[in-house]
Amino acid sequence: MKKATTKTITLEQAGKRKLTKAEREDLRRLAAMPDDQIDLGDIPELGNKKDWVRNRLFRPVTRPITIRLNAPDIAIARQLSKVKGMSYQTYLKKLLHEALERERTSVR
User: Which of the listed residues 59, 75, 80, 83 has the most CB atoms within 10 Å of its CB?
Assistant: First the structure.
């Protein structure tokens, strides 16, 4: 009887090549399996997250500014941000960024 072998590859490696028929079948089988039945025992523990440091290279440079907004607009932003599960300042920053990107692409 032939022994089954499994080869571990990284996501980066997987993205650069076509999956084999066996790999596609494994993915189909895993996708059909309920989450609580998937064995996660070979995933290492992440340990204490207290000492983790966020990579500053990928964080956009921000600086504090003062801007005057209408009180009703702030109230609406607060309501909508609660629904989205974020702070209203983050929500406003996201909206402003999206609007500026739209404008920039429409001007070109």
Answer: 80
pLDDT value at 71 more than 70: yes
Give me the mean pLDDT over the 42-50 stretch. Answer: 78
Torsions phi, psi for 33 (to 5 deg): -80, 140
Instruction: Count the helices and strands in the chain (H runs, E runs).
Output: 4, 0
Extended beta strands in the chain, E state: none
pTM of the model: 0.45
Q: How many CB atoms lie within 10 A of CB 74?
A: 13
